[in-house]
Amino acid sequence: MLSQPWQIHALDNPILVLIIPMFFGVGLLLLGLVFNGIELYWRGQLRQWLLRDAAVLAIYVSLLSSLLYAEALLATALALLWYLAGSALRGSHRRASRTAMAVAELAHSTLTLILNTISFARVGAFALAHGGLSLVVVTLIEAVETPVLSALLFIIGHAIVIALEGLIVFVQTSRLVLFEFFTQFLRADGRFFQPLSSSESPRNR
To answer: What's the CA gap between 82 and 56, in Å, rounded?
Structure first.
């Protein structure tokens, strides 16, 4: 006997539809933080990542885990001490001011990660909007008794839904990937492009 396929009706489970995309968001943010560590390793700055950025990763993971297990808050406290100690070890002068600045940077980083995680709920919100638009189209079709008009409403209604959803998917996926993912490790501090002059061209050598 075949079991029924597991599926979710968006309008019947709105909270669940909003929560599920945040799990994918957590995975994307964690991947960005890991890429940050790999990038710093390539740049020869692994010590900096181990002292501070790795602690931010541990704080983020432990805070998420605390939603299921309250004991994870102990790991958050240890990661916080790790971050403060790493910040103090980065410089020998003005440790008090450096520590205060590190606390402010940590608060900013943690708040940014939390807000970025919550922002993925918009994907679920668009799924709810899609369900609402589809329900409107189906209701209009069922209210019409003429087969030709029903077919016309079917084509036009679904064409509008597909066009709107395509635009939303393009804009929102680009925004989420650019601002929530790439900002975790992408840095605009490379070398400026300087084209070769005619005398330096390999053809003239």
So the answer is: 9
